[in-house]
Design brief:
Elements (H helix, E strand, L loop, with lengths): L2 H18 L6 E6 L4 H16 L4 E9 L8 H9 L4 E5 L2 H8 L6 H19 L4 E3 L4 H15 L8 E3 L6 E3 L7 H11 L16 H16 L3 H9 L20
Parallel strand pairs: 1-2, 1-4, 2-3, 4-6
Antiparallel strand pairs: 5-6
Helix pairs in contact: 1-2, 2-7, 6-8, 6-9
Bound molecules: iron/sulfur cluster (SF4).
Length: 254
Amino acid sequence: MKNHLVRKITRLVGKAIGDFGLIENRDRILVALSGGKDSWSLLYSLKAIQQRAPIKYDLGAVTVHPGPSGFDCGLIEERLIKDRIPYHLIRGRIVDVINENLEEGTNPCSFCSRLRRGLLYTYAADNGWNKIALGHHMDDFVETLLLNMFFNGTIKAMSPDLLADDGKNRVIRPLVYVKEEMTREFAQSLGVPILGCFCSYQGMSGSRRQWVKSLLTSIDKDVPHVRSNILASMGRVHYRHMVKRLQNKSCCET
Ligand code: SF4
C-alpha cells in the first residue's frame, strides 16, 4: 500500500464521513465487496480510517456470488483472513434468476444489482450490521445524474446517506468525493485480486453510461473540474430558480 495514496483517499473519505455524518460511534458497517477496484478501495480506506478514528466501529465485508463458476471468491477470502477482516459469502443464483426472468428492454446488470441489493439487505438486517457501505465514487454520482436528466427527464442521482426502501437498512457511500481514477490506483497499490463478473452479460452494464463517461472525459479537457462542479451543484440546488409545475401537471405536458 502506497502511503501517499492512503493519505489522499482517506482524507476524501474522512471528509465525506464528516460532511454527511456517515459513521457514528459503535456502528457496524458492512462493505459490499464485489471484488472490483471500487469496493476494495472502499473497504481498505474505511479500515485505514478505523485504525486512527476517535470513534469505534466494526467493519466487515460481504460478497454476493453472482452464480457463474469462474467467479472465485477464494482469493478474496484468503486476503481478508490475512488482514483479519470478517467476511461472509452469500451464494446466490442471480444469473439463473436473470436468465429466467429478464424482460425485454431491461438491462441485465441493473436487474442483477437489484437482486444483489435484496440479498445484501436481508443478510445485513439478520446479522446486526446497521449500515451497508457501497463503493460508488464521484464519477458514478455524476454519471447517474446526467443519465437521469438526459434519458429520463428527471433530476435524480445518488445519496451518500440513504435509508433504503425497506425502511430498515441505511446505505452509505463514503467514496462520494473520490474519483474513479483514484480507486484504480489505490486498488492496484493494495495488490488485491480484482475480479470481474465472469457472466455472459459482462460488458452490458450500459452503453448509455459509457457514452456519458466519454462525454464527461471530453468536457474535462476544457473544464478540468467538471465532475467536482457537477457533484457540488447537487448540494446547491436553488429551488426558487427551478421550474415549478402546477399540481398534478408535468411542466412539459403538451
Ligand atoms: S455482468 Fe452484469 S448481470 Fe452478470 S454478474 Fe456482472 S453485473 Fe450481474
